[in-house]
Amino acid sequence: MSWITKHPKFVLTMTLIITIITGLLIPGIVINNSVRVFFPDDHPSNLKLEQLDETYGNQILMVVSLTDEEKGILTPALINHVSELVKEIETYDFVEDVKALTNTDYPVGTEEGMEVGPLIPRDFSGSGKDIEEIRRRLMDWPRMYRKMVYSDDLKATQLIISIDYDHEARDLDILYSKVVSLIKEKGLSGVEYRMAGHPVITQRAKAYMYHDLLILIPVVLAVILTILFLAFKRPRATLLPVITVAIATVWTFGVMALAGIEFTIITTCLPVLLIAVGSAYGIHVLNHYYDELSETDSELEHTELVARSVRRVSKPVLMAGVTTIAGFMSIVTSQIVPLRMFAIFSSLGTLFSLILAMTFIPAILCLKPPKDHAEMRDSGHAAEMRERFYIKIFSYLRSRKPALLLGTMIIIAFSIYGLTQIDIESSMLEYFPKQSTMRQHNDYIAKTFSGTNIFSLVIKGEKSGDLANPEILKVMDDLKTYLIEHHEKIGKIISYSDFIRRMNMIMNYPPAEVPTDGDVVTPAEPSFSSDDDVEFASFFDDAEPEEDASFSSFFDEEESWKGAAGEVVSTIAEKNESPFPYEQYAEEMTYRDFLELISEAALEKSGTELTGSELVTLIQRRFNYRGAAFDEIPYDPGRYPVETREDLADLISQYLLLYSGSLDEFADDALEPTEACMTIQMTNNATGPVAEVIKDAKAFAERNFPDGYVLEAGGTAEMELALTRMVTSSQIVSLVVALVIVFIIIALAFRSILAGLIGCVPLSMAILINFGIMGLTGINLDIVTSLIASIAIGIGVDYTIHFMTNYHEERLKSGDLQQVTRNSLKLSGRAILINALAVGLGFAVLLFSGFVVLRYIGLLVAIIMGTSSLAALVLLPIILNTFRPSFMTRKSGGK
Q1: Residue pair 726/489 in contact by the 8 Å Cβ criterion
Q2: Span 51-70, mean pLDDT?
Q3: Which of 55, 81, 706, 839 has the smallest set of CB atoms within 10 Å of its CB?
């Protein structure tokens, strides 16, 4: 210490050089809030998302919805506009695919068999006839198109933009900006545009973070300056702690940039933390410095006075710094990467603040000593007033021990109850205010379409071709039905089995006309597209078709296929005896006939309730209208021209042959898939419903899957669910680790296990009250709020150590507990209360954050500073005076 006081200019010069270098590095920090950044590279959820991307295409989606409340979406202007947007966005870097109304495919049955043409053909003229045909096509396959490319009222459509998995944060910045600019530039009058999806959430989070950093840092500095000025009423004492933490913050973020650590929403509160917490060390150093000035009557050399005051305060300050760092470092046990980075850099920033408080501040004090010691002495009247205030409060509470004990027990009881009510949630959408534009856009898209919170269920077999087995396909289809019926938060499920059902229905279209001679004629599907429009690419692919790309039916005599039984497979429509009354297509029907038809169809429905759409479906199935009777997985050999279920597997393989290379988003192989998936869209972003769906799906698979098949879940929604589970485990571990470390440090410092236990009492109370408030007020435990307990321990332990250290020193001087308490409160009370006020109000600045979750942190940390400081100043004296632990009278314990 004497070296620092003898060479203050060198200390200041080195401080300035380091500050300039680290400050120049800060602009290189990258902001990234992608859900993947929260996971280690080898985490199972991260690996599953990567595997899903490799097998089925990208899982990271940005959604743009277009709504025309007046004209609807089926107008030439809007359809052409969507087409232009799709073509432009598809050219952007890191865009893998764009699914939209204008490039979705339409599979249909024809007299040749099956064709796949565009839903809206390239020769679309915009005529009334064309619009009506598009409307009919949309209604022909609602399982696929409804709430995917059109809303129920046909007033909204959406573009689903798939983004390359390997993009960087800056790449997403550019892509998002381009899409926003495109909408502003080419937007149609009368059309309202909305954006949602995980990429949009991360981009909006970045905007909120910029706002917070620009607004909150100056505000928290102003708050700390105000508190220090009111406390010390001296310009130097006001400015030095703030300058110290500002320099420490610059050093911290410079090192972050140098190490290539990305900035996340969790890191947003790091500047506030460092400024509020780091100022404590400067406050304690200056407080002891001015105490020395007020008590020194001799003409002591000023540099020696500085050195002596710093030496006197070094032990409690160093212990407080070490325990604060230990509290923060307890978070490093978390699997969540940004939490680990927060632990490391909050600890590093605290270390920088501690070093600067012990070097930079003494150097400044030595360079500019006060003109007169007497001028710097504290007002005796003010000191006496503070002392009376502390003793009065302590005496009042001590005289009412039963009431204090009862009140403490009531608080503990309510806190324990609140703890049991805490919800654990990690959806980043919940961080934004409900009235924010992004939340409103997301809610609209979730309600109008099927939601943007997406994950996949993957069904895996053991060998090639296992997912052409009707046994597993039937169960897969049943699983979809089961999940939709039991989970109202599911907006839509698109399954591999849906495509098999569609193929099966198409290949069993009935004749549309029955001539008088009784010969069955199967006319071609009405269409305004040319033969050249027919293609067999992905259902959502917009690739150019090849000449003569239509396939003849695989039941054609020229290219017949023989099943396992060696018989030529033909469609039901081609059998001599049909189970469906096709001849009635050409007959007129009376009202009585119609009513009888309705009654007969209704009898087929089990139960008493029957909706209009269900009635229509039953009638269509009765006549096999447009193949409705075969809208199923081929499972019953008796309904098909085959003998065994193995033959049906061969039939399904032939379906897949027609779609060779077209189902990449739903199967790992076009012809002989080993695995296939279903994509589930949730109407909200909470992780609880996702957990329930996955749990039910796995239970269903356990009960119903044939041997050799397993089910796995993956995707961005599943990653958020995994994040929620990681929050729980990391919170428990970090709490235990932090309390154990604090216990060990205090126990070693005083060489007493009892000292460690007593030191943990104020912290445990503060943490319990924090969780109680969270549970009682409905504040979720999430990635960000999980920091509060460790922050509470890291900061609150300062108050405990300062009081116990001063109490120990006074206890060695006197056996009069009243005097010991009075002197301890005199020495510690002011610094503890100033620090608690500075930190509490500093964090309260977060109440002005754009993020709801940071507002919660601001509120809870402010409360916790109050409870932990009061517990240190009230509970500790009562405990120490009541039990009179022997470690407080051992000289070796404090040395």
Answers
A1: no
A2: 89
A3: 706
Q: Which residues contact 608 (CB under 8 A, 6 or more apart)?
A: none
Q: Which residues pair with 162 in a beta bridge?
A: 61, 97
Give the start-end residues of each E strand in 363-460: 453-460
Taking only the tens place, the pLDDT of each residue in 760-797 is 888 888 899 999 999 999 999 998 898 888 888 888 88
Tens digits of residue pLDDT in 449-500: 998 899 999 999 999 999 999 999 999 999 999 999 999 999 999 999 999 9
Residue with more model confidence, 714 or 388: 714
Q: Is the pLDDT of residue 165 over 90?
A: no
d(CA 551, CA 547): 11
Q: What's the CA angle centered on 281, arms 894 and 767, to 5 degrees? A: 80
Q: Which amino acid is at 403?
A: A
Please give the Cα distance from 47 to 358 (Å, whole number): 47
- Per the CB < 8 A criterion, the answer to whether 471 and 650 are in contact is no
Query: CA 293, CA 887: separation in Å to the nearest integer?
Result: 31
* Separation CA 810–CA 814 (nearest Å): 6
> To which H or E segment does residue 680 belong?
strand 675-682
Distance CA 193, CA 231 (A): 53
Phi-psi region of 639 (alpha: psi -120 to 50; beta: other; left: phi over 0): alpha
Give the burial string for 854-884 (b: 16+ CB within 10 Å, else e).
bbbbbbbbbbbbbbbbbbbbbbbbbebeeee
Report whether 450 contacts 681 (CB < 8 A): yes
Give all strands (DSSP E) within 100-191, no chain letters: 105-110, 113-118, 156-163
**Pairwise pLDDT comparison (272 vs 597), residue with the higher score:** 272
Quick one: angle between helices 380-398 and 401-420, nearest 10?
80
d(CA 474, CA 610): 24
pLDDT at 692 over 80: yes
Give the model confidence (pLDDT) of 385-419 as tens digits: 666 666 676 666 667 777 778 888 899 999 999 99
Phi first, then psi: give them for residue 822, nearest 5 degrees.
Answer: -60, -45
What is the DSSP secondary-structure string of 633-664? -S--GGGTT-SSHHHHHHHHHHHHHHTTT--T
DSSP tag of 732 = H
Separation of alpha carbons 893 and 746, rounded Å? 10
C-alpha–C-alpha distance, residues 394 and 539, integer Å: 76
Bridge partners (DSSP) listed for residue 192: 67
